[in-house]
Write a structure and sequence with these properties.
Blueprint (H helix, E strand, L loop, with lengths): L1 H5 L10 H19 L8 E4 H7 L3 H6 L8 H18 L6 H15 L4 H7 L2 H21 L10 E10 L4 E11 L6 E6 L6 H17 L5 E6 L4 E6 L2 H22 L23 H8 L5
Parallel strand pairs: 1-3, 4-5
Antiparallel strand pairs: 2-3, 3-4, 5-6
Length: about 300
C-alpha cells in the first residue's frame, strides 16, 4: 500500500525552473515590508515549528519560544526517529530491539544536555516502558514501510535552508526522510502518533523550501504514522505551493508582530495545552483540559 502511494505515475512531468522563479518573486514581494526590519546579523528565522505554533496559540508560541521541556511522548519520537535512521543506513539486518538499543546508546552518548538527561532521569521501570514503546513503533515501521533501495537515494534527517533578502529572512527545514532525485523528490515526515490535518500544512512548507533551494519542486509529500501504519500523501503543485506561500507570509507577519511586541499574543486552546507552560494559569487552556469548553 505505502509503495503504491509513493510510486511515480507514468504521466508525471517535473516542474520547470520558471515555476521556482515565479514563486520566489511572489514570496519576496509579499515579505518585503517585513524583511526591512531584519538583517543578516538579526534574521527572521522561519521553521516548521515556528509557523505551526504561531498559527495556533500565540501565547503558547511566545511562552515556549526559548524553552523546551521533554516528555515521554517527545523523547519516544526522538528515539524512534534515531532507531529508524540507523535501520535505514545499516546493511546487515538486525532486530527492532537492537536498533532501539543502539539509538538509546547514541542519544545518551552524543546528546548530553538534551534528551539524554531526560532519559537518565527516568526510573528503570519508566526506561523499560519507553524502550518497549519504541520497539513497537520500529517493528511497525519494518512491517509496513517498504525497504528502501539505494537507487532511490534515501536520505534521513535531510536539512534544507533558503536565505532571502541577503539573509535577512531564513527558512529552514529538516525532513525525516527524502527519496528521489531533484525534480522527483518525495519528502516524508514520520510521526510516532496519528496523522493530523496540520501535517499537510507542515509539508507544504517543506515543499516550498525545496522548490526555492533546488529550483525544482518535489513530486510528492507524505506523512507516515507509525502508530496507525497509515500514509497520507499529497501531490506538489502550483496550488499547494501557493497555499504554502500564503501561510508563510501570514506566519511571518505574526512572528514579526510578536517579535517586536507590537501587541499582546492571542490565546487559542488546542492540543498544545497538554504541554504548554501556561496551562496552569490560562483560563482557555484549563477549560480545554477539563473538557468544560462551554464554560
Amino acid at each position: 500500500m505505502v509503495l503504491n502511494v509513493l510510486a511515480k505515475r507514468g504521466d508525471f512531468v517535473p516542474s520547470s525552473p520558471e515555476l521556482a522563479t515565479e514563486v520566489e518573486e511572489h514570496l519576496c514581494d509579499a515579505l518585503s515590508p517585513i524583511a526591512e526590519h531584519y538583517s543578516t546579523s538579526n534574521p527572521l528565522w522561519i521553521t516548521k515549528h515556528a509557523l505551526s505554533t504561531v498559527h495556533g496559540c500565540e501565547a503558547h508560541h511566545v511562552a515556549s519560544r526559548d524553552s523546551f521541556a521533554w516528555t515521554i511522548a517527545s523523547v519516544r519520537g526522538t528515539v524512534a526517529h534515531k532507531a529508524i535512521e540507523i535501520l535505514i543506513n545499516t546493511r546487515t539486518p538486525r532486530s527492532p530491539g537492537e536498533y532501539v538499543d543502539d539509538a538509546l546508546d547514541r542519544i545518551v552518548e552524543s546528546e548530553r544536555g538534551t534528551a539524554s538527561d531526560f532519559i537518565a532521569s527516568l526510573s528503570p521501570g519508566e526506561q523499560a516502558d519507553l524502550r518497549s514503546q519504541v520497539v513497537d513503533l520500529v517493528t511497525k515501521y519494518e512491517d509496513s514501510f517498504p525497504k528502501l533501495e539505494m537507487r532511490w537515494r534515501p536520505v534521513v534527517e535531510s536539512n534544507a535552508k533558503v536565505e532571502l533578502f541577503g539573509g535577512a529572512v531564513v527558512m529552514s527545514t529538516r525532513a525525516d526522510l527524502v527519496i528521489g532525485a531533484p525534480g522527483s523528490k518525495v519528502i516524508i515526515d514520520i510521526k510516532s502518533s496519528r496523522i493530523m490535518a496540520s501535517h499537510r500544512e507542515d509539508l507544504r512548507f517543506y515543499s516550498l523550501v525545496e522548490t526555492l533551494r533546488s529550483r525544482q519542486s518535489p513530486r510528492l509529500t507524505a506523512t507516515f504514522s507509525l502508530e496507525t501504519q497509515r500514509i497520507d500523501a499529497e501531490d506538489v503543485s502550483l496550488s499547494t505551493l501557493s497555499v504554502a506561500v500564503h501561510r508563510l507570509v501570514q506566519g511571518a507577519q505574526l512572528l514579526h508582530e510578536l517579535d517586536q511586541e507590537k501587541r499582546a499574543p492571542t490565546r487559542r486552546s488546542g492540543s498544545t495545552c497538554y504541554w504548554c507552560p501556561l496551562a496552569d494559569t490560562c483560563n482557555e487552556g484549563q477549560e480545554f483540559l477539563t473538557g468544560d469548553r462551554d464554560a
